[in-house]
Structures are given as C-alpha cells and as structure tokens.
C-alpha cells in the first residue's frame, strides 16, 4: 500500500502523525506571547507594565532572597551555642510577625529568657527584645514596640562588647552598630535601608576572630536586613528574625529616636506586664524603672547611665505622653503593617472640612506633594511612592499561570483537559486579576464559586 | 456476530442513556476550570489572536451593554469573514475594523444560516443537553445560568460533543460491551463524500466546508486514498498573521500553517468495534474518524454526532 496512514484495528498507533510533516514557524512566537500574557498576570499591574521600575525593584529583591533557600537555617548555631539554639526556636516562631497577639507565647518566651539568663548570667539582648515586644503587643493600646528600645539595645553587640553607649543624638539619624559573629571572611550587610541593593562591608574586630562590625546611621523605624557571608545570604542568629512578605527569613531592628525611648521607661503598666510574665524576679536588677529584668546586666547599667543623664520628664500621665509620641511616628511600620489607632489617640485638633484638598484634585499639586515626600524620606529608594503596594503573598499564586505551565509542549493531554485548573485556595476567590494592556486589549480574570465548583473566567475586552 | 453481542450492546446503550439522563451538564465540568469570554466590541482580528494564544477554537461572547450572553465565536465565523472578503476584496477596511458584534451582518450578507445558539441550564440532564446539541447543528452548547441576586445571565461553561463523549467513555463501564463493528450499526456516513486534493485552492476547500455544513474535508490522492484532512479549525491558523492575504494558496500549502502539536488524522475500518472508537475518544482529542478499507481508500466518515445520535436514539 502506498498510503501512509495506519489502518486496521483501532489502537493507539492509529493516530497517524506521519502525514504531518509540516511545521509552522510561527508556533514558537505564539507560545512566547502566550507565556508573556500569563506572566504579566502574576504581576497584576494595570497600566504601564513595560519598563517601569517598580516591578523590577521588587523582582530584584526577590532574587536576592531566592538564593538562600539552600542555606540550612540553624546549622550555624549547633556548633557553638547549642543551649541558645534550643531556646530560640519557640521565640523565633512567636516573633516572626510584628503583630502576633498570642497571650501564651510571651509567657513561654520570658520563661525561656530567664533560664537562659541564669545559666549564662548575661547574654543576648535579642531575647530581651523579643520579650519586650511580646509584652507590648499584648496591649495594643499602649505604645509601639520600637520606642521601648534604645539604640544600644537594638544592637546586641554593644552590650556584648561592653562598648560605651552611642552618644544621644537629637537628629533623626540614630547610630547603630551591626555585628556579625558567626565567622566568615568577607561580610556584607544589605537591607531595607539600602533598598536591598547596596552591600555595606563589615570590618573585622581586631583580636576577636570571626567578629565583624559596622556602625551605621539609620533613621528610626523598622529595618530589615540580611548578611552576605562569603557570597552566601544568611541571617544572624544573634538578632531578631522575622519572615517578610515574600516569606524570607530576615533580621530586623526597630530603632526609636533616643528621646522617645526614655519616656517609655516610665510606663507603669508596662512594668506590671513584665512582671506578670515572669516566673521569678531577677535579683540582679532592682530599681523602679527596670523593665529590663530579663536583660543581661551590662545592658541594664548602660541604660541606667543614660537615664541619669536625662532630666526627669514632666509628670504627665504615661498614656497621654505615649499618644503624643505615636502621633509623631510614621504609621507604616514596614512590611505592610501599619499602626493601630485607638479612638483616644485621635487628636481633637483636627476638624472635618467639606473641601477636597488640592492634593487629591490637582495632579500637579499631587505630584509636588509626592516629590516632597520623596525628598523627606531621604532614602535610597527614590520615587518609592511610584511603587504600587505589594500584594499579599497568597495572592501571588495565580492558578491561571499554572495552567500555562501545564500546557507546555510535550505535555500530552494539555489539549485534552477541557480547561481544567488546579483547585484555587479560597483566599484568591473574588479577586480581580488583570493582564497588562496589550494592543488596546485588556484581559481581566476572576475566580468565583459556581455551586461547588470554581470558575475562572477571563474576559477580553477592548479599551473604549 | 452472535446474538449475545447484539443483546449486550443494546443493554449497554440503554444503560449509557440512563447515565446521561441521571447526570447533569454541571457534572461534566472539572472542579476548577477556566473559561475565556470575549466582549462583543472586540475586533475580530484580535479575537483570533486570543483564540490562538489560549489554544482554543471557540469562545462565548458577552455583550457588556446588555450584560447578556451573545452567542459563541467559532471557526465558522472566521470562515464567513473569509468568504465575505473573498467576494468583496474592496472591503478590506470593513473587514479590518470588524467587531465581533458585526459578524451577524456578515452572515446575512453572504446568506448563510446562522448557527442556532441554543443554550441550556447546567442543572438540566445531560441527555437534554445532548438532544439540544443534535437539534441545532452546533457541536457545542453553552451552559447559561442566572445570578441569584441580579438575575443576570452567567455563562457557566460550554460543552462540546467531544467532552460529553469523553465523559461517557471515562465514566461508563458499559462502553466495553459495545462490541459490534461500526459497519453493522448504520452510523457511518458513506457514499460520495466531499473531498479535495492537495492542489485544490484553499478557498475552494473553505467553500466546501460551508456548502456541506461539515467540519472537515478529506484530502485524497489520485487513487482516492486518504492523505490528509483540512479542518474548519485550520482556517484560524491560515489567517492568523496578515488577515486573508493567503487565500490563493493550495490546500497543501495551507496545511503548512498547522501547529506542530496537530494530533494527526484518525482512521478506522468498518470492522472496528464501537468500544475501540470510544476508547480512542477517551485517550485522544479526536473529532471524527475516517473509515478506510484495506487499500487505504476512503469509504466513509464517522463523526462524533453520529456516535452521539446512536447513543441517544438507537437500540431501543
């Protein structure tokens, strides 16, 4: 028979592909564009998607983090600080988010801290920082965590090295010493204060092998950072850690301006809280303003010194003072968290008006406003206001993107699955995803429940 | 063939029919699926790109002014536009700026009967959906529901003959008792089929598609042996780049535009059992079987609607 197609019984090989020796060169183009569309879904950027900086910025920081997946988390600890390692685990869990309100955890946390202290006498103010923070978070009305912490505390190495406390500065920048004490030869630090781009080298401390430090001037607020140790992204075990929005483990510091940190010490409620959390009071730290009971001795004395240098504050009620401080601080605590405002914190000085401020109506005024904001921030992240807010991580996973990867060539049956998608997480339901606008066409998609099933509808529509 | 095989087949078909009556269109849908919908104000040429990008051949349309389902976009719409442009080459501007809601005008001008866009509620029995699909000449049926609050239409999904038959092949164990050869069942369309050869101009083949109301035209060689098939969905690839410039190509050249993952042409003989056919439907995306004899000569064609009609209405 001269014919090429198979015949006879029906079976798999009846599918006659031998006739199809034709190929279309355009096919690869088609796939490319298909992928492009789907990828842009994950960015969810309406408007100008092409070359604008914001998505790039974020991508870049993500890239940095991606490298560290292979790093084993606690391996470093095991060698020289095994006790610490044991006690750190519950803590790092509880402190991983800046808004954990779990009443159980602080109790456990302080417990651990005390055991630690009795064993070692002095150590690791990182713990103390956790401890304080948790105490504070129990009382949402009362003050933000960062203001409790003086700059010395935020840098654990200060107490460890016994170095003198940094001079109190009236400026907005606060000197902070960052140390790395887990070995290595070339140490850099990178973080939110450099926009995750620049790496700042750490200087080895003479006479102390494996110890590096750098003194930075940082504005008050929350700073997230990582260390780059011999080209490897790592985090310090001696500083607080948290999981950021991308799900990466980072170190963080909360820096308050020095003036604020002192007033906080007067907070009576705070002291009570701290005592509540204790198992037994520490004999090492007497005195009325020892909210640092859990802290190692050298640090406490350093703080006392600082307190003595200051004049006693006005006998205002602690709460009203706090309210005033909070007004001055930025509401955005970083990482998408913003400060909670209780009713009593709102200032009575404000009044409602009926005119819409020009900032919202006149685009030129608006631009000027944002430019001014940008200058005030004096950060490396110029034009940061142009960056759209990041998506919550659970919205990043667009199941439509999974579809495209499943329909790659070579995956047989991709044609045959009648548009079946993975079952979506319920949190992505009823959200609107959009593609970038291409060729004057916008595609929006939304996952909705239909009875007990999930319909992902994509609507293509022209711009009018 | 023994008597028992016929009896078994009869019982199996009746059982499958009960299955179709007991299930709904909703049951055919995956737990999570995507549905691509196009606004009727979209340009026709852009809708073509969207179909190709998403690897689909049809999409429901949505009229955003009335918030109503506005029919299905299928390959036959593009065939209509090709035919219109071929007979009115001076109307390039019109074709280029044609919107999806203008397709009805094209239908009217070239005088084709518009496809019946019957729809059905997803919770109606699957059997009803099949009957409705057979009544209309369409190979697919949109599932339309109403929103509980706004009472507006919701396009839930679109079912095709293929999806329903695959659903049956996957879920009915009775298909294994369909052991009678298809030649006995009087379901194969034989006789003088529409056909062409490799040198036939593609525009003539496209005309054959609409004249015969068929979804594909077999391509035969001089001995009337089957060499390839031109399908209605192939026109999407034909006009994807520059619209409608390549209508002078021969059908053989037009086939060069086909995508790499084309599955091939499915053939069978009249001695094949219906079960084997159903099993192939289960495994592969096939829309028709060409029946050939031992010499490879084309003797007939078995379409999905032939199979569906047999299951719905025969063996009582």
From TrEMBL, chain A:
* Cross-referenced InterPro entries: AMPK1_CBM (IPR032640), ASC_dom (IPR006828), ASC_dom_sf (IPR037256), CRP1_MDG1_kinase (IPR050827), Ig-like_fold (IPR013783), Ig_E-set (IPR014756)
What keywords would UniProt list here? Cytoplasm, Phosphoprotein
Asked whether the keyword DNA-binding is assigned, the reply is no
Give the subcellular location. Cytoplasm
Matching CDD domains: E_set_AMPKbeta_like_N (cd02859)
Q: Where is the composition biased (Low complexity)?
A: 128-141
- Gene Ontology biological process terms from the UniProt entry: cell adhesion; invasive growth in response to glucose limitation; regulation of invasive growth in response to glucose limitation; regulation of protein-containing complex assembly; signal transduction
> One GO CC term of this entry?
nuclear envelope lumen
Please tell me whether the keyword Magnesium is annotated for this protein. Answer: no
Compositionally biased region (Basic and acidic residues): 71-84
Composition-biased stretches (Polar residues): 1-12, 89-100, 113-127, 142-162
Start and end of every Association with the SNF1 complex (ASC) domain? 345-463
Q: Which Gene Ontology molecular-function terms are recorded?
A: AMP-activated protein kinase activity; enzyme-substrate adaptor activity; protein kinase binding
* Annotated segments matching region Disordered: 1-175
Q: Which family does it belong to?
A: Belongs to the 5'-AMP-activated protein kinase beta subunit family.
Query: Which protein are we looking at?
Result: LALA0S06e07206g1_1
Q: Which organism is it from?
A: Lachancea lanzarotensis
From TrEMBL, chain B:
| Top-level lineage group | Eukaryota
* Localisation per UniProt entry: Cytoplasm; Nucleus
Q: One biological-process term from Gene Ontology? A: regulation of transcription by RNA polymerase II
Q: What keyword terms does UniProt attach to this protein?
A: ATP-binding, Carbohydrate metabolism, CBS domain, Cytoplasm, Nucleotide-binding, Nucleus, Repeat, Transcription, Transcription regulation
Question: Mind telling me which GO cellular component terms the entry cites?
Answer: cytoplasm; nuclear envelope lumen; nucleotide-activated protein kinase complex; plasma membrane
The record's InterPro entries line, in alphabetical order, gives:
AMPK_gamma/SDS23_families (IPR050511), CBS_dom (IPR000644), CBS_dom_sf (IPR046342)
Give GO terms: molecular function aspect only.
ADP binding; AMP binding; AMP-activated protein kinase activity; ATP binding; identical protein binding; protein kinase binding; protein serine/threonine kinase activator activity
Is Cytoplasm a UniProt keyword of this protein? Answer: yes
Q: Which Pfam families match?
A: CBS
Q: Which residues form the CBS domain?
A: 187-247, 256-316
| Key word NAD present | no
User: Which Gene3D superfamilies does the record cross-reference, listed alphabetically?
Assistant: CBS-domain
| UniProt similarity note | Belongs to the 5'-AMP-activated protein kinase gamma subunit family.
Name the job this protein performs. Adenine nucleotides-binding subunit gamma of AMP-activated protein kinase (AMPK), an energy sensor protein kinase that plays a key role in regulating cellular energy metabolism. In response to reduction of intracellular ATP levels, AMPK activates energy-producing pathways and inhibits energy-consuming processes: inhibits protein, carbohydrate and lipid biosynthesis, as well as cell growth and proliferation. AMPK acts via direct phosphorylation of metabolic enzymes, and by longer-term effects via phosphorylation of transcription regulators.
- What is the protein's given name? 5'-AMP-activated protein kinase subunit gamma
**Originating species:** Lachancea lanzarotensis
């Amino acid at each position: 028979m001269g014919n090429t197609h198979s015949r006879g019984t029906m079976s798999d090989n009846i599918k006659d592909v031998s006739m199809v020796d034709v190929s279309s060169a355009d096919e690869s183009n088609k796939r490319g564009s298909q992928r492009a569309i789907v990828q842009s879904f994950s960015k969810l950027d309406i408007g100008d998607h092409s070359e604008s900086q914001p998505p790039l910025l974020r991508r870049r920081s993500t890239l940095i983090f991606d490298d560290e997946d292979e790093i084993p988390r606690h391996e470093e600890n095991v060698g020289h600080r095994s006790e610490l390692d044991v006690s750190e685990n519950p803590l790092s869990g509880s402190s991983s988010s800046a808004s954990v309100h779990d009443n159980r955890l602080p109790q456990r946390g302080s417990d651990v801290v005390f055991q630690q202290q009795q064993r070692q006498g002095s150590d690791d103010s990182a713990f103390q920082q956790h401890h304080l923070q948790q105490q504070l978070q129990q009382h949402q009305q009362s003050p933000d965590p960062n203001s409790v912490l003086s700059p010395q505390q935020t840098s654990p190495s200060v107490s460890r090295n016994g170095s003198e406390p940094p001079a109190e500065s009236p400026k907005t920048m606060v000197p902070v010493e960052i140390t790395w004490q887990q070995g290595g030869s070339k140490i850099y630090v990178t973080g939110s204060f450099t926009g995750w781009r620049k790496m700042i080298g750490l200087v080895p401390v003479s006479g102390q092998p494996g110890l590096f430090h750098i003194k930075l001037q940082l504005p008050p607020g929350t700073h997230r950072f990582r260390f780059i140790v011999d080209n490897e992204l790592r985090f310090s075990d001696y500083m607080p850690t948290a999981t950021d929005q991308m799900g990466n483990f980072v170190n963080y510091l909360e820096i308050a301006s020095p003036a604020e940190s002192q007033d906080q010490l007067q907070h009576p409620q705070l002291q009570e809280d701290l005592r509540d959390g204790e198992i037994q009071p520490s004999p090492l730290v007497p005195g009325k303003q020892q909210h640092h009971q859990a802290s190692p001795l050298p640090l406490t004395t350093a703080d006392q010194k600082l307190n003595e240098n200051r004049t006693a504050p006005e006998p205002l009620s602690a709460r009203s003072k706090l309210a005033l401080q909070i007004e001055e601080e930025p509401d955005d605590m970083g990482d998408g968290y913003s400060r909670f405002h209780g009713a009593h914190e709102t200032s009575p000085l404000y009044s409602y008006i009926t005119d819409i401020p020009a900032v919202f109506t006149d685009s030129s005024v608006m631009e000027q406003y944002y430019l001014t904001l940008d200058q005030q921030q004096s950060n490396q992240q110029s034009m940061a206001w142009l960056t759209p807010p990041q998506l919550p991580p659970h919205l990043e996973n667009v199941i439509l993107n999974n579809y495209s990867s499943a329909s790659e060539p070579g995956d047989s049956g991709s044609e045959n699955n009648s548009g079946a998608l993975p079952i979506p997480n319920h949190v992505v339901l009823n959200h609107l995803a959009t593609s970038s606008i291409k060729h004057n066409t916008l595609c929006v998609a939304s996952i909705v429940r239909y009875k007990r099933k999930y319909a992902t509808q994509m609507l293509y529509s022209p711009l009018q | 063939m023994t008597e028992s095989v016929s009896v078994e087949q009869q019982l199996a078909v009746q059982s499958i029919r009960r299955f179709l009556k007991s299930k709904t269109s909703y049951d055919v849908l995956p737990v999570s699926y995507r549905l691509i919908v196009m606004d009727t104000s979209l340009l026709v040429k852009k809708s073509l790109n969207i179909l190709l990008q998403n690897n689909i051949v049809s999409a429901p349309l949505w009229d955003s002014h009335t918030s109503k389902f506005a029919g299905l976009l299928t390959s036959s719409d593009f065939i209509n536009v090709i035919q219109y442009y071929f007979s009115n080459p001076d109307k390039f501007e019109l074709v280029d700026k044609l919107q999806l809601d203008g397709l009805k005008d094209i239908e009217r001008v070239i005088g084709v009967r518009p496809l019946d866009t019957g729809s059905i509620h997803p919770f109606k029995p699957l059997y009803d959906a099949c009957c409705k699909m057979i009544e209309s000449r369409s190979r697919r049926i949109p599932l339309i529901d109403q929103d509980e609050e706004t009472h507006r239409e919701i396009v839930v999904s679109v079912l095709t003959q293929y999806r329903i038959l695959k659903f049956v092949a996957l879920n009915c164990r009775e298909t294994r008792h369909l052991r009678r050869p298809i030649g006995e069942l009087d379901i194969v369309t034989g006789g003088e089929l529409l056909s062409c050869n490799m040198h036939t101009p593609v525009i003539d083949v496209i005309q054959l598609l609409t004249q015969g109301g068929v979804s594909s035209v077999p391509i035969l060689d001089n001995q009337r042996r089957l060499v390839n098939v031109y399908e209605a969905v192939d026109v999407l690839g034909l006009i994807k780049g520059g619209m409608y410039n390549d209508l002078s190509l021969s059908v053989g050249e037009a086939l060069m535009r086909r995508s790499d993952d084309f599955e091939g042409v499915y053939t069978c003989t009249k001695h094949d059992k219906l079960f084997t056919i159903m099993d192939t439907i289960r495994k592969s995306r096939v829309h028709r079987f060409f029946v050939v004899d031992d010499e490879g000569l084309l003797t007939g064609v078995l379409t999905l609607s032939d199979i569906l009609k047999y299951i719905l209405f025969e063996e009582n």
